[in-house]
Amino acid sequence: MTRGEDYLMREVGPYRDNPGASSSNPDVSHYYDDPSHTQAATHAPSPYHNSNTNLNNMSSSPNDYRNLETAAPRSSAWLEKSQTGSKRAKWIVVGSLVGLAALVAIGVSLGVVLSKKSSNSDTTTSSGSTAGAPAGTNPDDPSNFPKNSTFKQSFWGIAYTPLGSLLPDCGNSLAEVIEDIQLMSQLTTRIRLYGSDCNQSSLVLAAIQETKVDMSVYLGNYPDPTDNGTAYYRQKQEIQTALQTYGTANVAGITVGNEFILNYVTQAGQSDPNGSAGDAAAAILIPYINDTRSMLTEMGLSIPVGTSDAGSYFNNEVLEVVDYGMANVHPWFANVSIDDAAAWTYEFFQETDVSLAQS
Predict the structure, then answer these.
(1) Are strands 190-192 and 41-43 parallel, antiparallel or unpaired?
(2) Which residues on neighbouring strands pair with residue 130, listed in sequence order?
(3) What is the residue-level pLDDT of the chain in tens, covering all 359 positions?
(4) Are strands 190-192 and 216-221 parallel, antiparallel or unpaired?
(5) Side-chain half-sphere CA neighbours of 316 within 13 A
(6) Residue 254: phi, psi to the nearest 5?
(7) β-strand 41-43 against 55-57: which pairing, if any?
(8) Best exposed site among 51, 152, 163, 330 by fewest CB in 10 Å?
(9) Are 213 and 244 in contact (CB under 8 A)?
(10) Looking at the DSSP assignment, which residues form a beta bridge with residue 159?
């Protein structure tokens, strides 16, 4: 899948530390963080936005954060379906969320496309529009953009992480997220985020509202089992800020954990998500899930809370406390050819995850 010339990403400026940045006069192009924790991070509104509302966020701690793209060793066992019926737990799924799980692998491919940088750095015009924006876009109204006639809303959902949204290299911008939302809204009505660092929850919700597209998002919290909750609580505050600022109209759920059980179990040299390592991981993850639900209750909000894991690495105890489960089913990790990938993904998902949900 190619993005097309009209949707080439602009070169993202580097993450910058600027303790002197003022919330009353923010830099539109950059997300600021003060490593000394002496001030909250701020991100300016889009040049299209007239409310001049600043997004105050919890300052992050890059040194305590593990690179989310460093995959844990994959056990071949996760590529196999569940071994016994006795280990099948009740999988609580909201509506047709099952469809999203089957398409996560497809979303990854689009995410790769969106993360590619243009070979030519585009410039920003005085009107606030950019050379990388779709031709014909109204520079004062991001909801007025031309549609690509070859695109169809054929995906139930797409997994997405804005470029420049992994600590310590925050370098995303609302203008670029708007371009991504303009593109993805022509392919789907749902997206899923893996985490919330670098202000991405607020940026995505702001972009959806400013483009006025039919889009809902599953916000994500990507905790680290080894940091005593540092990553979880940092992202929890990012999510809370986003909900307070933009409301819940475009929020489909909050996903706490991504392959949390898989990573913990395989790093322990085990393969059973309901073995000793799986239950130990659940004992760490479940309090985060419950804490997220408590936060929502205190805010007077009712939003589904779920988790995401590898297709056959759902822990029974975790499944008992979530509202939905998202299964990551990746033919690439199973060394499946591109010719067989779609059929393999569908078969694996039906035999492993749908069966689990219906048991």
Answers:
(1) unpaired
(2) 124
(3) 333 333 222 232 232 233 333 333 223 233 223 333 333 333 333 344 444 334 333 333 333 322 223 333 333 333 333 333 333 333 333 333 434 443 443 444 344 344 433 333 343 333 334 445 666 677 789 999 999 999 999 999 999 999 999 999 999 999 999 999 999 999 999 999 999 999 999 999 999 999 999 999 999 999 999 999 999 999 999 999 999 999 999 999 999 999 999 999 999 999 999 999 999 999 999 999 999 999 999 999 999 999 999 999 999 999 999 999 999 999 999 999 999 999 999 999 999 999 888 87
(4) parallel
(5) 11
(6) -125, 120
(7) antiparallel
(8) 51
(9) no
(10) 192
CA angle 77, 79, 83 (to 5 degrees): 55
Structure token digits, residue 233: 């609580």
Is residue 328 within 8 A of residue 308, CB to CB? The reply is yes
Predicted model pTM: 0.68
Task: Match 């805010």 to its residue by tokens.
Answer: 299
User: How is residue 216 written in tokens?
Assistant: 């809902």
Q: Which residue has the tokens 């073995």?
A: 275
Contact predicate 256/305, CB 8 Å: yes
- The answer to whether 87 and 316 are in contact (CB under 8 A) is yes
Distance CA(274)–CA(278), nearest Å, equals 5
Q: How far is Cα 62 from Cα 115, in angstroms, rounded to an integer?
A: 21
